[in-house]
Design brief:
8-stranded mixed beta sheet, 6-stranded antiparallel beta sheet, globular, binds adenosine-5'-diphosphate, binds aspartyl phosphate, transferase, plastid, kinase
Length: about 575
């Protein structure tokens, strides 16, 4: 298909002699005059061109260059007011259009996989890339099986109930879907060997953990791609670590490296050219460490990030993440079931919400979407009719007061009061150098001239073994005590209010009314530079009461008084 697109572009080419550098210059000069709705297309074009220029295989491909020239010309035409958009071939729009990510809850069983397949096929005009997580609780079961294997002894490995639950689930799914079991038999055998290996070694390193949990996504995608094929769909399974997802070697919490985007775009584009109409089924969550070459994972819930990275790599029209809730909700429904969907969010709001504890999105997942300016839609695979949440660069905040309440539990807080051995600058610098050296991330900070209160990011701390955590905290306190009096306060919670911080006084007025009524004392308060978040620290055992009471005050007994006098604010 891409071959056809390129061939179609040849007659339109404005200059047969256009060379790569000329094309680059034209892209750059045009970027300055582009109106906003064309920017994402130009970005996509610039990136595509960069790959083309950098790639020896494409270097002499005049057809590619000519198609770029045609696209650049089309953008210029649009700028001058003559909209030829519909008659212009666009390389990407004729390949993949959207990414559809389905989480563990959406593909938890054979029945769910059938429904997800129906859902995908109910969009016949789309050319989707599918991203899947592991089925149901498979990731947790694999981790548990690994932990048990460390101490149970080789002879008992075959009896590990979590291992057998994983095997049974996948074998019964294959049976119910009438897929050939050979698509997973080798993987299941490899998994058993790995568990035996862990048992023999009596240790489960984070590198091995990533290899172990990778079986979840590798199994689910193989089954689902085979099932789509049975239904006559041209589906193909991809392991992200073979597709070009290159990451840091920080096992269990790896970061996607920039080299991923061109590698993935090149590979998927080439495969489409060979096989137009192809539907890739890609493992979420997984990557390949750039130094070790070993399988890495992107942190729990990382399949969201895989989907947004694919969206950016291919300049897709939209990234859809399909969950088991009607979108991003006003608070965690497990704490307060009356939570309702939030229709619109900005990338910044969604990122803040995810970072401060809303389980619904991976904390880093907004970054590629924001960089590529690709809208993200959060939808419910159990209720596709629900409109969900649309996350984009900007939204009208004129009606917005508070958007969502999120809570991060079991947080450690530090009160650090200077002994005045150092000046103020020296004090702050020394404190943060200690955190840097120990690799401990800080979430919320409030400072005065001689003291700092802050919370430690639990996700970074919890990724360490318990013993390591305790000794690190001990070491950190000892270091800080050289310059300060330190109080370590455990079992705190961060309640973050995501909303229109232009109205922070009104928000805080209401918050403090609620807290006074409930007799709750706020121990620290911080309004981040992001301007969409106010964070309050309370005791962990008060967190649920706070969230319910705040939700009732902000979302359940709405009076129009706050919205009336507010000017229109466009958040970007
Ligand atoms: N603010 C929120 N909005 C929506 N869901 C939330 C929120 N906070 C917590 N959740 C939880 O996140 C879950 C969805 O995220 P997740 O389990 O990662 O989905 P999936 O595995 O399908 O990707 C919901 O079932 C819900 O319990
Ligand atoms: N399976 C991985 C990755 C993931 O993204 O899962 P989910 O989409 O179900 O949150 C996990 O459980 O963390």
């Amino acid at each position: 298909m891409a071959g056809e697109v390129l061939a179609a572009a040849v007659p339109y080419a404005s200059s047969q002699s256009l060379c790569n550098s000329q094309t680059s210059r034209r892209v750059s000069s045009l970027s300055s005059i582009l109106c906003r709705d064309l920017a994402p297309r130009l970005l996509c074009l610039q990136r595509d061109l960069r790959y083309t220029v950098n790639d020896a295989a494409y270097r002499n491909n005049n057809a590619v260059i000519r198609s770029h020239a045609k696209l650049i010309d089309s953008i210029a035409v649009e700028k001058s007011g003559i909209d030829e958009r519909l008659s212009v071939p666009n390389v990407y729009s004729q390949q993949y259009s959207i990414a559809m990510k389905f989480g563990g809850s959406s593909v938890a069983s054979a029945a769910r996989m059938k429904e997800v397949a129906d859902l995908i096929l109910s969009f016949p005009d789309e050319n989707p890339i599918i991203v899947l997580s592991a089925m149901g609780k498979t990731t947790n079961n694999l981790l548990k099986a690994g932990e048990v294997a460390v101490s149970c002894g080789v002879a008992k490995c075959t009896a590990i109930s979590e291992l057998n639950a994983v095997k049974d689930l996948h074998l019964s799914t294959v049976g119910e879907l009438q897929v050939d079991p050979s698509v997973i038999t080798e993987l299941l055998e490899e998994l058993s060997q790995l568990i035996t290996g862990i048992s023999l070694m009596k240790e489960l390193t984070s590198r091995t953990k990533d290899y172990l949990v990778s079986f979840g996504e590798r199994l689910s995608t193989r089954i689902f791609a085979a099932y789509l094929q049975l239904r006559g769909v041209k589906a193909r399974q991809y392991d992200a670590f073979e597709l070009g997802f290159i990451t840091t070697d920080e096992f269990t919490n790896a970061e996607i490296l920039d080299a991923t985007y061109p590698a993935v775009a090149k590979r998927l584009s080439a495969d489409w050219s060979r096989d137009p109409g192809l539907i890739p089924v890609v493992t979420g969550f997984l990557g390949k460490g750039h130094k070790t070459g070993a399988i890495t994972t992107l942190g729990r819930g990382g399949s969201d990030l895989t989907a947004t990275a694919l969206g950016k790599a291919l300049g897709l029209r939209e990234i859809q993440v399909w969950k088991d809730v009607d979108g991003v909700l006003t608070c965690d429904p497990n704490i307060h079931p009356v939570a309702s969907p939030v229709p619109f969010l900005t990338f910044d709001e969604a990122a803040e919400l995810a970072y401060f504890g809303a389980q619904v999105l991976h904390p880093q997942s907004m970054r590629p979407a924001r960089e590529g300016n690709i809208p993200v839609r959060v939808k419910n695979s159990y209720n596709p009719q629900a409109s969900g949440t649309l996350i984009q660069k900007c939204r009208d905040l004129s009606e917005t007061f508070l958007t969502s309440i999120v809570v991060k539990r079991d947080v450690t807080m530090l009160d650090i009061v200077s002994t005045r051995m150092l000046g103020q600058f020296g004090f702050l610098a020394r404190v943060f150098t200690i955190f840097e050296k120990l690799g401990i991330s800080v979430d919320v900070v409030a400072t005065s001239e001689v003291s700092i209160s802050l919370t430690l990011d639990p996700s970074k701390l919890w990724s360490r073994e318990l013993i390591q955590q305790a000794s690190e905290l001990d070491h950190m306190v000892k270091e800080l005590e050289k310059i300060a009096v330190v109080k370590l306060l455990r079992k705190r919670a961060i309640i973050s209010l995501i909303g229109n911080v232009e109205r922070s006084s009104l928000i805080l007025e209401k918050v403090f009314c609620v807290f006074i009524e409930k007799g709750i004392n706020v121990q620290m308060i911080s309004q981040g530079a992001s301007k969409v978040n106010i964070s309050l620290i309370v005791n962990d055992d008060e967190a649920e009461v706070c969230v319910k009471a705040l939700h009732a005050a902000f979302f359940e007994n709405l009076s129009s008084s706050h919205a009336d006098s507010v000017p229109c604010v466009l958040a970007c």
